[in-house]
Design a protein that fits this description.
- It is a single chain.
- With 267 residues, this protein is of the alpha/beta class.
- The chain has a single domain, classed as Rossmann fold (3-Layer(aba) Sandwich).
- 36% of the residues lie in helices and 14% in strands.
- The chain contains ten helices and ten strands.
- The protein has helices spanning 3-16, 19-39, 50-53, 73-85, 100-106, 119-124, 129-134, 175-187, 210-218, 222-225, and strands spanning 47-48, 90-94, 111-116, 145-149, 166-169, 195-198, 202-204, 207-208, 228-231, 237-239.
- The longest helix is centred in the N-terminal third of the chain and has 21 residues, at 19-39.
- 38% of the residues are buried.
Length: 267
């Protein structure tokens, strides 16, 4: 199920049965214990500054809808900046939604591929035609973008024979889906310079979403776990072979992680 339809359904259920919120919080607490016990990340991943990744960071985020369910502008800027830095030939993402992330990366990458649940499956889940039509809004006409309608949990990645410079995981955020998408993403990396980015590692830019982190860590090898970072001022985690200066101190306690954004709106 699309993550936004799930969020809306969960909200309606919590409004009808408020005690369900306690179950969600308890589940996150159990996932936190799981992460601490099995992976020893009591405070989440070490945080790396955007300016550590991009010392002269200045980028355009376009398009950006400023509507519900969008990634943060800093998330989009991160993806676009990484694609530029990698001279990205092939980009892959799981989870299309309005196509904003795809369109941002497609502006600087040679070829982009996005995978999302088939329209017919979304229809079977009871989602409206108008809601389904919103998908791919910003990316459907891009010449260098390829849209694949498939469920990443059942898709045959083993025989896909594709490799990518940059992979963005932003599909179903349940633990099992994150774990499965993570395992498959590592199989699709082109070389030692390739990077994986996970969205919604954080509930907010300073708060870990433990169920997502648990899925990421359980999908990684011991060596891969040592190359994971939270990117400050974003909702994202990333895997990279680069040696980066990082910290376990919360971003709000580090003055260098206070940024200003310049925003221009246009139709």
């Amino acid at each position: 199920m699309n993550k936004f339809s799930k969020a809306f359904k969960a909200f309606r259920m919590i409004m009808a049965k408020p005690y369900l919120l306690n179950l969600i919080l308890e589940d996150e607490e159990e996932m936190k214990k799981h992460v601490n016990k099995n992976h020893n990340f009591p405070h989440g991943l070490p945080s790396v500054s955007l300016l550590e990744l991009f010392p002269k960071f200045e980028n355009v985020v376009e398009p950006f809808s400023f509507l519900d369910g969008s990634s943060l502008p800093t998330d989009m800027a991160l993806l676009r900046g990484l694609a530029q830095q990698l001279n990205c030939t092939n980009y892959f993402e799981i989870g299309t939604w309005r196509g904003e992330s795809l369109a941002n990366v497609a502006a600087v990458a040679e070829h982009c591929v996005s995978m999302n649940l088939p329209d017919c499956e979304m229809k079977q889940l009871g989602l409206s035609d108008d809601y389904i039509a919103i998908h791919r809004h910003f990316s459907k006409d891009l010449k260098n973008a390829e849209h694949i309608q498939a469920n990443s949990l059942t898709f045959d990645f083993e025989n896909w024979n594709r490799k990518f410079d940059l992979i963005f995981i932003d599909g179903d955020h349940h633990y099992q889906s994150i774990k499965s998408d993570t395992i498959n993403a590592f199989k699709l990396l082109k070389d030692e310079n390739s990077i994986i980015v996970w969205h919604d590692y954080g509930i907010g830019t300073e708060t870990v979403r433990w169920s997502v982190l648990a899925g990421i860590l359980d999908g990684c090898s011991t060596e891969q776990k040592g190359k994971l970072y939270h990117v400050s001022n974003t909702l994202c985690a990333m895997y990279t072979n680069k040696s980066l200066k990082s910290s376990t101190i919360l971003p709000n306690q580090q003055a260098e992680n206070y940024y200003s954004l310049h925003i221009k709106a246009k139709k």
